[in-house]
Automatic annotation (TrEMBL):
It comes from Rhodopirellula baltica SWK14. PANTHER family: INOSINE_URIDINE-PREFERRING NUCLEOSIDE HYDROLASE DOMAIN-CONTAINING PROTEIN, PTHR43264. Coiled coil: none annotated. This is Inosine/uridine-preferring nucleoside hydrolase. Transmembrane segments: none annotated.
Length: 350
C-alpha cells in the first residue's frame, strides 16, 4: 500500500511540471550536462563561488563547463576567470567577454595579477578581457558545436550576452540566427535576475541584474524562444540561503592560497554571510531533479521600463519561478557550501 501511495505522489509531481522537472535523458544515462556559464563576475563574489561549484560538479561527472561568457566590462574579468579555471585544472575552457555593457570596477579581480616572487600566484594565459573573443562569438560557436537540445545556459548577471545572441544573424559559425540556434541547441536557461515580490521592506525591488542593463533584460524576456524553458531565481531566493562565513575560514585551507577564499574576503570580509544568488541558479541547472527547489506554475516574466519584474501566470508560458521552503533552504545552504569548497582534483597554485 505504501509503495502505491509513493508511486502516485511521484506520478502527480511529474505531471505537474513535465518540461522542467522530469528527469532528462542525460540524467538518466549519467551523462554530464553541457553548461555555458554567463556571468557578470566583477562586482559581487557570489559569481566566484558559483564558478567553483561548477568545477566541483564537473569533477563529480555531473556537468561539463563548455564556455564562460562575461557580461560586464572590466579588463581583468576574463584573466580572473582564466585564473580560476586554471586553478581547477581547466585552463583551456573558452572564455568570451562583452564589449558593450556596464563597466564595473572590482574589489577582487586584481587577484589574478598577484605574484609570489617571480611567479603568478594564480597562473593564467589571458592578460586582458580584450584578448578574449566577443561573448556572442563564443556563445554561437559553443551552441553550434553542441548536440541538439543538450545545453543548459546559466545566466547570472546582465542579459547583455544572451540579448546579443538573440539579435545575431547567420554567419560562418552557423547558418542559424540567434533565436533558431538557441531553440535547436538549448534545453534550459537558468537565470538569476529580478524580484517577484516584496523585499527589503518595499512592495517591489529593482534587482541589480535587471536595472544595470534594462534594455538587454527586456530583449531577453521578449525574444527568448517560447519552447526553451527559462527558470528564474529571484533576489529573495539568494537572500534566504547565505554562504556561511565559517566555510571561508575553515574549508579552503587545503592549499596555501585559494582564489575563492581570497576573492570572498576582499569583497565581503571575514564577518559576513554573503547571499548566494548565483549559486542557486547553478544548483538548479545541474540538479533540477533533486528537489532543492520547487517551481511555480508556468507564466511569463515581464520587465518594465524602470527595471521592475513581474510574473504573469500563463499555462502556456515559457517561464517558471524558483520557490523554496525553509526546510529546502537548510539543504541548499549545506550543499552549496560542500560544492563551493570541494577541493579540485588537481589544484594549480604557487
Amino acid at each position: 500500500m505504501f509503495q502505491r501511495i509513493v508511486l502516485l505522489l511521484l506520478t502527480f509531481a511529474l505531471i505537474d511540471c513535465p518540461d522542467v522537472c522530469a528527469e532528462s535523458d542525460d540524467a538518466l544515462e549519467g551523462k554530464p550536462t553541457p553548461i555555458i556559464f554567463d556571468t557578470d563576475i566583477t562586482g559581487d563574489c557570489d559569481d566566484v563561488l558559483a564558478l567553483a561549484m561548477l568545477h566541483a560538479l564537473q569533477d563529480r561527472g555531473e556537468c561539463e563547463l563548455k564556455a564562460v561568457t562575461i557580461s560586464k566590462v572590466n579588463p581583468l574579468a576574463a584573466p580572473f576567470v582564466d585564473a580560476v579555471n586554471t586553478f581547477y585544472g581547466r585552463g583551456d575552457i573558452p572564455i568570451g567577454a562583452t564589449r558593450d555593457a556596464q563597466h564595473r570596477p572590482s574589489l577582487y579581480l586584481e587577484l589574478c595579477k598577484t605574484r609570489d616572487g617571480d611567479s603568478l600566484r594564480y597562473p593564467h594565459d589571458l592578460l586582458s578581457s580584450k584578448d578574449a573573443p566577443e561573448a556572442v562569438v563564443v556563445l554561437r560557436r559553443t551552441l553550434a558545436e553542441a548536440e541538439d537540445a543538450s545545453v543548459v545556459i546559466i545566466q547570472v548577471g546582465l542579459a547583455a550576452n544572451l540579448a546579443d545572441l538573440l539579435d545575431s544573424k547567420a554567419d560562418a559559425i552557423s547558418p542559424l540566427d540567434g533565436p533558431a540556434l538557441l531553440q535547436q541547441k538549448c534545453k534550459l536557461i537558468s537565470v538569476m535576475a529580478g524580484c517577484f515580490g516584496p523585499a527589503l521592506g518595499k512592495p517591489r525591488h529593482d534587482e541589480a541584474n535587471v536595472v544595470n542593463g534594462i534594455d538587454a533584460m527586456r530583449r531577453f524576456a521578449v525574444q527568448s524562444p517560447d519552447d526553451v524553458p527559462v527558470v528564474w531565481s529571484d533576489y529573495r531566493i539568494g537572500i534566504a540561503v547565505p554562504y556561511p562565513r565559517e566555510s571561508i575560514a575553515r574549508d579552503f585551507s587545503y592549499v596555501p592560497h585559494h582564489p575563492v577564499r581570497e576573492a570572498y574576503l576582499l569583497h565581503s570580509g571575514p564577518n559576513h554571510d554573503r547571499p548566494t544568488w548565483d549559486l542557486t541558479s547553478v544548483l538548479f541547472a545541474v540538479r533540477p531533479d533533486d528537489h532543492y527547489f520547487d517551481l511555480s506554475k508556468p507564466g511569463r516574466v515581464v520587465v518594465d521600463k524602470e527595471g521592475f519584474t513581474e510574473f504573469h501566470p500563463d499555462e502556456n508560458g515559457r517561464d517558471r519561478l524558483m520557490e523554496m521552503s525553509a526546510e529546502q533552504a537548510i539543504r541548499v545552504i549545506e550543499v552549496q557550501r560542500a560544492l563551493s569548497s570541494q577541493p579540485p582534483r588537481q589544484a594549480v597554485s604557487r
